[in-house]
Amino acid sequence: MTDGCPLHFDHYEHALQDDPYPTYARMRAEAPLYHNEEHDFWVLSRHRDLHRAFRSDDVFSNRMGVSLDPSSWNENAHLVTSFLGMDPPEQTRLRKLVSRGFTPKRVADLEPRIAEISAHYLDKAVAQGEFDWIGEFAGKFPMDVISELLGVPEADRDEVRRYADLLVVREDGLRDVPPAGFEAAIWLFGYYGELLAERKARPGDDLVSALLSAEDEGQRMTDQELTAFLFLMVVAGNETTTKLLGNAVRNLALHPDQRAAVFADPGLVEPWIEETLRYEASSQLLARLTTKDFTVDGVTCPAGSKIMFNIGAANHDHEVFTDAEEFDIRRDKAELSQHIAFGGGRHYCLGANLARLEASIALHQLVERCSSIEVAGEPVRFYSANVRGYASLPVRVQRR
């Protein structure tokens, strides 16, 4: 795997004919709708096709979940992934209830505390001069923000983070969740169940308390629905932001001229974030179940098939993005707004505002404290079937 081609098929090594890591351009040209016969799944990769697919609930179903891991792909996916494993109208009902508590105002009100958490870890890391960007900052900061949002006591946060990290680790050659991941899931479900009971008895000013009281047309979330959503927050709110921060630093470090520009002009932090989301999205692939036959360029995928939405490929589509294979923080804003790193339609990520806010605060603080950052050792990729990022990223900073 090279840094220049962020396609991620580690678990499906023969997914694209005889070349597991083709360029995005060739992949779309040769197989905008590709069938992997060995593992019996399909891949949809063009931007215009995915833009439409995210809005076609009558063709693409979520009811089996969003991952092809054997333990995750089943009709009980919603018990773990909340509304990500549902179709309308159930999905619509639950998203509306979640939105009652997880509001833009609640996220915005958290900004000062997010800045404190970021500074707490970043100041200690930067003082060393050389450190692991993931191990000492990006792997800690997002999970503490989620814990702050949910009202997890500070005394519990290290343990919660430890189990959250175990939850997303995958073992080389194993096409499923490893035993440690299952044990972490059981622990986290138990912990959040206890947290719910505590908030029922003593409500606080946190998201859990807000969700317990959220109501829409007389309906409220059940305990099972609440626990599944909290579990989803651990994965979606922790892992993806950690990977976004790692990918942002790594890609900028590979382009010294752009790196110099960002550290000279903090106004470039936002386009740096958006170009990272386009160029190397944390979530590269999402699974769906087809409910009808559908055809792309004369190729038909039958109803009842497993299909992967290849977000990474769509975000490198030359029909949409100029010089799509190039990382360019000065990319046209109108063009950049077309990336689909956060999905689309009713499937647009509810946590997108929080992820962007966390990244903005963290990277602005980095630019304020340092005049440069560079990779100071061999990065270690995070092993996953659908998430792209780093498990370790040694860096060296120059303090201002």
Which key features would you list for this structure?
single chain; alpha+beta; Cytochrome p450; disordered N terminus; 17 helices; 400 residues
Map the helices and strands.
Layout: H1 24-30, E1 33-36, E2 41-44, H2 47-53, E3 60-61, H3 78-81, H4 90-101, H5 104-109, H6 111-126, E4 130-132, H7 133-138, H8 141-150, H9 157-168, H10 179-201, H11 207-213, H12 223-253, H13 256-264, H14 269-279, E5 285-290, E6 294-296, E7 299-301, E8 306-310, H15 311-314, H16 333-336, H17 352-369, E9 370-375, E10 380-381, E11 390-392, E12 394-399
Parallel strand pairs: 2-8
Antiparallel strand pairs: 1-2, 3-5, 4-12, 5-8, 6-7, 9-12, 10-11
Helix content: 40-55%
Total number of strands: 12
Distance between the termini: 35 Å
Q: What profile does the largest beta sheet have?
A: 5 strands, mixed
Radius of gyration, in Å, reads: 21 Å
Number of individual domains: 1
Q: For this structure, what is the CATH class?
A: Mainly Alpha
Helix count equals: 17
Which stretches of 5+ consecutive residues score pLDDT under 50? 1-26
Tell me the name of the CATH homologous superfamily: Cytochrome P450
